Amino acid sequence: MMKQGRRIRTLAGGCAIAAVLGLSAWRSGMFFDADFYGLEIVLMVCAALAAIAGRLRPGQIRTPAWSFAPAGMAALFALELALGPATVKGTTDLLIRWTTYASWMVLLAFFLIPNEDNRKAGWRAWHAVGLFVVGGGLAGWLGFVGDPRLVFRSGDIALAATGARLAGYLEYPNAFGAAAAAWVLAQWQLLLHGRRAEIVFAALTLVPYTTALLLTESRGALLALAFGFALALMLQRRERLGMGLAAAGAAIGLSAWVARAAFAAMLDGHPGTAVWPLAAATLAGALALLALRGRFPAVRAGRAGRIAAALTTVPGGAAALAAGLAAAYAALVGGGSADARVGGQFETAVSRIAFYTDALRMFADHPLLGAGGKSWRMLVGLYRQKPYIGNEVHSGYLDILLDVGLIGLLLLLGMLLWCALRLRKRADQAWGPAAVLLAHSAIDFDWSYGFMWLMLIAWLALHLAAAEADRASASVGAFAAADANAEGAPRRAVRHRGALHRIAGLLPAAMLLGCAAAALPAAWHSLAAARAYADAPAAAGPAREAKLRAALQANPAYTRIRLELAPLLPPQERVELLAAGLRYEPHSPPLALALGMAYAELGDAARARDYLREGLRLNRFDRDAQNAAIARMARLAERLSDAGAESAAREAAEAAAEFFERYRELYRRVYAGGNNPWDAKRDNLFSGAKVNAAKAMLRIGRTQEAQDVLREVAEEENGDWREEARELLRRLDEANRPGG
Fold first, then answer.
1. Dihedral sign, CA of 20, 22, 23, 25?
2. Among 21, 422, 450, 584, which residue's CB has the most CB atoms within a 10 Å radius?
3. Confidence of residue 489 (pLDDT cuts 50, 70, 90)
4. DSSP 697-718
5. pTM
């Protein structure tokens, strides 16, 4: 009966691991915080109970110190909240996330350490999720699953050479490519290290997984795979190198052939026809890989056996890998359909230099502890030196550096180094796939996906738990011998060290429980706010306002809700609502701009000017905001003048002219020596700002400047603004004529 209960618990634990990873992948990789709150609450509650149980029953329930490691990062975000971050919501969300990551690691240790059966269940769960994630992506490409998220489509050849890239449930080809690359390397390692059934599984999945990676057209993921593969080779024993090289060559060659066929089928509008090349290559690859692995005894003595033996030497394996890479190059680059992304068009990589340069400028202003969670999104407008769209800094390490500074980055790297030291005896199996995820995160925003962290932590925990079991087994005999020989003072010293060890073990558990005490209520309120906010679009009138009010009451730091509620309120209440939001995000461009617009509606020219000026300072390359601020102040000047408030009208007009001059100077400086879009005569993007600024200039007596600006618009090729500019110039000419 006890044995049956143990089996049920093992099965339930494996299913729980698969469910957490599978659900987090399916929900857009948990990129969006609103999707993650519910799962975070469940994991934190369970981990808190496990941590308490581990302290109460240390001999029976194992929650070692390494399982609490991510709690250190959570504590840093809690400290950021106390110090006053750039965004309270962003910092709170990352406190919740890192507490969840620590909770996930504790729960994995709780389940995996006790026995080998649990660890086997954990490995099966991890690989089952690989089938779900990678297989689901391939099914979406082939048209077997009607989920539009699975395939990214674009007419821009720099973004998708064939017009389509595999994005999977993560909805982003680069991040999906990194996950697929990690599973590719995991299958390759399983082929080398696994048992009989595991070897067959790896042989059957290596080609499809590699095909999925190639269909992402992610150069970064391929580079990360190359890095992880090189590291894995360095850590392998020499007797496995030849086999590993040959297997990699066979997989990449066959997968490239399938990917070429799949791209062609997608271009023809019949992606499902690629299933036949995929099936053929999967079967051929499995047979070849199993033959290389020596799984067919009858073949060993013949000619095929001699070929396999030659290929599994280091020179033979290197030749097989070179042949596979050459075949892949011929299929995908040398005239292949993916040439534009695999073989060239590196503009996206070059553009990230601008992100990284601005990020380092931001870091210089907040070097030790950073500016708080998600500070890039909040502050990028202030540091951006060129106009670009970039809500993500495209580097996980830079993101950590900006959020929690040098201290946070060193803490993260120290955590990884600690894991590496504990896994030094299992390095040949542990660090290849982990290195893929860690390397790709340096050049993209993988760490913004909760799924990527859950996946990485699960991989490390599986190996750490096995290493923990190895240590425990090795130390049992030594401990028993020491205990038998211990007498008097030596025996007391052993007991004393044990007591110190138990006290030290309380510290990480206390840290996790403290973070959970702060994060759990925050997650609960955030979940309530997210649900009310999600219901608001379906409501209308007072019902919509009520939903938004309820959402904001649940989470006052949620600025997006505040901005959507504000237009539904009377001007004075709107001002109060928006001003209150600055307590949570003092450097928010949308809040400052909305507050300036609200003051303009109230007719307060001075405060409207001040808040609009601050909003434009915080995000000066926001063209819509620049145009709107100039237009609002020009209209305010006209309204105040009509009401007889000439002094206030002049103040508003001067503000409009000031905004315009700064706007124009910004583009002159940024595009000095190049083609300035400000001077374009076709599809000009600045016509509205010019006409509104000219109206303001006329109101404060700067007639000549106004005429010069209006002539710029009048010389454009088309547009309503051109007609308005010509009409204003005609009126000025009539007014300046003698007797006019």
1. positive
2. 450
3. very low
4. HHHTT-HHHHHHHHHHHHTSSS
5. 0.93
